[in-house]
Design brief:
Layout (H helix, E strand, L loop, with lengths): L20 H8 L3 E5 L2 E4 L1 H20 L3 E2 L5 E3 L1 H6 L1 H4 L5 E4 L5 E4 L4 H11 L8 E10 L14 E11 L2 H21 L4 E5 L9 E8 L5 E5 L6 E3 L22 E4 L6 H8 L7 E8 L2 E8 L6 H8 L4 E3 L2 H8 L15 E4 L8 E4 L5 E6 L9 E3 L18 E15 L1 H5 L3 E3 L5 E3 L1 E8 H11 L1 E2 L2 E2 L10 E5 L5 H16 L4 E3 L6 H11 L3 E5 L7 E6 L5 E5 H16 L3
Parallel strand pairs: 3-7, 15-17, 17-20, 27-28, 27-29
Antiparallel strand pairs: 1-2, 4-6, 5-6, 7-8, 8-24, 9-10, 10-21, 11-12, 11-21, 13-19, 14-15, 14-16, 18-19, 21-24, 22-23, 25-26, 29-30, 30-31
Helix pairs in contact: 1-11, 2-6, 2-11, 12-14
The protein binds one RNA strand of 76 nucleotides through strand 14, helix 9 and helix 13.
RNA sequence: CGGGGUGUGGCUCAGGUGGUAGAGUGCUUGGUUCGGGACCAAGAGGCCGUGGGUUCGAGUCCCGCCACUCCGACCA
């Protein structure tokens, strides 16, 4: 491609809307343009990268035996109503009606539609196992689109769905996808970690996230360097640290204390002059239509995902102050478990505490020396807190680390959630009907692209891995008015193309500085500069990721580039 | 959904106390340059987000709306 003819534009200044490196660079390098909040167009240069990522995903899916198809993004409501997700998705689903008033949505994900399709085609155990996939546009009306393409309202996802006869078959299909995902993210050049995750709105029995470590990531992961345990914060199990002597502690007499103006844990710490660990927070939640109380230690954060899973509710939110006052009979800030008439879910750590402080359900008062079982009863005792840096690893007990990550892939064991809801069954050898056992597997294409940039950039711009670079090589004649330079540049350009190398020729009548800056910004892995020594057939060969260049003959440069591209794109 | 901020050429931004628009960059043309975002000159490009109000007169003041953006949505 001749740069003079290319539809692209680089920006010298950082667009005001972009906060993070990948977003800034994608705009500055002219890979994409914003149309509206969370909605982007990909321009030719960006789309080339996009398609290469898609292609890697496609190759690995095919290699894993999955079959590609494509479904509409515009979907009738029925299948989602059957699975219950028409309600579950809530405001996040783009909904619309046709002229006849029938309801549709723009698909946020396609479990229901795949299930429905397989149901109508596949009847026999002989046809299983089966894995299908598509690379298709998804729509989610995000609460808050952010970070460019990292969290957008329209995005492309590779979604795959496996159908098996039994759990053992699912385990094999799942592992197969797991391995394919590792190959995909390896080929994309990403540094990632695989963590256990909650199944969330998808339902099912197990799931793992492929996460790229990054400070701007929105998922929180806890991992153990000692044993390799890794899970996201929604999932990471918390265990109770024993041996602090509480067990032997004598239970003191319950005492009601006037605590005017002390509502928050900070205020209470001041008032009582002790640490947050000696308080138990009582949080009032609305779980669908039911109101419940949940208790965690003063220094802990409640884990809403865990609580939601225990309660089995669809929606979970903190109760408003009106509800809190009605249920506790006190202003917000004085809730406690004693005398409450609603279910009380107690964190396993709180169940081990002795003589702690809770709200008295009376404005301006707290109880001290509270003890579980003597003073109140828990409806359920379970782990409902969020893991923190330094907490013991649930596998080996060593302190865990907590970091942020970008979720680029997610795999789930769905089980029969959708096949039962939509009656997707097969006949086994005995002619008996059984629901298919499903798995589903997603990769965000746009997000993966942004993640690669997050991990591969410097102050000058993007540094693409060769496998997904928009072009492999850029040839820069320093002076386009010099016919010797131009002739050599043209020769290198056409010879590289003849060898199957994707190459740009920066034939613009610009000063060399401008061309170098642009080449660095858009991150082309190999740069061949044709300058003063063109008359001797000598050029400069420079890699984007390295600081220095080497001076070699044009022939050597062509050979070297060809070899490097072959190596960089090779599939192991 | 709650709170804050911002809307002025493609991009980054100026425009006290009201008097119908500027700079830099980018773009076009000519010239001088030519190894890390050159210089000179001449141009093109804006119903100042939108609707209303105040006023002789609104980019500027008042009200509504919209869009974009940041923070929060774990406060007991």
């Amino acid at each position: 491609m001749r740069v003079s003819k290319m539809f692209f534009q680089t920006l010298r200044e950082v667009p005001a809307e972009a906060e993070i490196a990948s977003h800034q660079l994608m705009l500055r390098a002219g890979l994409m343009r914003k149309l509206a909040s969370g909605i982007y167009s990909f321009l030719p240069l960006g789309y080339r990268v996009f398609r290469k990522i898609e292609q890697i995903v496609r190759e690995e899916m095919d290699r894993a035996g999955a079959q590609e198809l494509i479904m509409s993004a515009l979907l009738p409501a029925e299948a989602y109503q059957a699975s219950g997700r028409w309600e579950v998705f809530g405001a996040e689903m783009f909904r619309l009606k046709d002229r006849g008033g029938r309801e549709f949505c723009l698909g946020p994900t396609h479990e229901e539609i795949f299930t429905d399709t397989v149901k109508s085609v596949t009847r026999s155990y002989r046809s299983l196992p089966l894995t299908l996939y598509q690379i298709q546009t998804k729509y989610r009306d995000e609460r808050r689109p952010r970070f460019g393409v990292m969290r957008s309202r329209e995005f492309v996802m590779k979604d795959a769905y496996s159908f098996d006869r039994d759990e053992a078959g699912l385990d094999i299909s799942y592992k197969n996808m797991y391995d394919a995902y590792c190959r995909i993210f390896d080929r994309l050049g990403l540094d990632y970690i695989i963590v256990d995750a909650d199944t969330g709105a998808m339902g099912g029995s197990g799931s793992q996230e492929f996460t790229v470590k990054s400070s701007i990531g929105e998922s929180v992961i806890a991992y153990c360097e000692a044993c390799g345990y890794a899970a996201n914060d929604e999932k990471a199990e918390c265990i109770v640290q024993k041996g602090c002597g509480e067990e032997k502690c004598e239970e003191l007499n319950l005492e009601k204390v006037a605590t005017p103006d002390a509502r928050t844990i900070d205020e209470l710490m001041n008032f009582f002059g002790c640490s947050a660990k000696e308080f138990a927070k009582t949080l009032i939640y609305k779980a669908d239509d039911k109101v419940v109380a949940a208790m965690v230690r003063g220094d802990r954060e409640l884990n809403e995902t865990k609580l939601q899973n225990i309660l089995g509710c669809i929606e979970l939110e903190m109760a408003d102050s009106e509800t809190v006052e009605k249920v506790t009979g006190a202003a917000v800030g004085f809730a406690g478990p004693i005398g409450l008439k609603i279910d009380v879910i107690v964190d396993s750590e709180v169940a081990e505490m002795k003589n702690f402080v809770v709200g008295a359900n009376e404005t301006g008062y707290h109880y001290k020396n509270v003890n579980i079982n003597r003073d109140f009863k828990a409806t359920i005792v379970k782990d409902i807190r969020t893991i923190k840096e330094g907490d013991p690893c649930p596998k080996c007990g060593a302190p865990v680390k907590v970091e942020f990550g970008i979720e680029v892939g997610h795999i789930f064991k769905l089980g029969t959630k959708y096949s039962k809801a939509l009656n997707c069954v097969y006949l086994d050898e005995n002619g008996k009907e059984n629901p298919m056992i499903m798995g589903c597997y997603g990769i965000g294409i746009n997000r993966s692209m942004a993640a690669v940039i997050e991990q591969n950039n410097d102050e000058n711009g993007i540094i693409w891995p060769i496998a997904i670079a928009p072009y492999h090589v850029i040839v820069i004649p320093v002076n386009t008015t010099d016919s010797v330079q131009m002739e050599l540049a043209e020769k290198i350009y056409s010879e590289l193309m003849a060898k199957g190398v994707e190459v740009m020729l920066d034939d613009r009548d610009e000063r060399p500085g401008v061309k170098f800056k642009d080449a660095d910004l858009i991150g082309i892995p190999i740069r061949i500069t044709v300058g003063k020594k063109a008359n001797e057939g000598i050029v400069e060969y420079k890699r984007r990721k390295e600081k220095d260049f080497t001076v070699i003959s044009a022939e050597q440069a062509i050979e070297m580039a060809k070899r490097e591209v072959e190596e960089g794109c090779a599939v192991k």
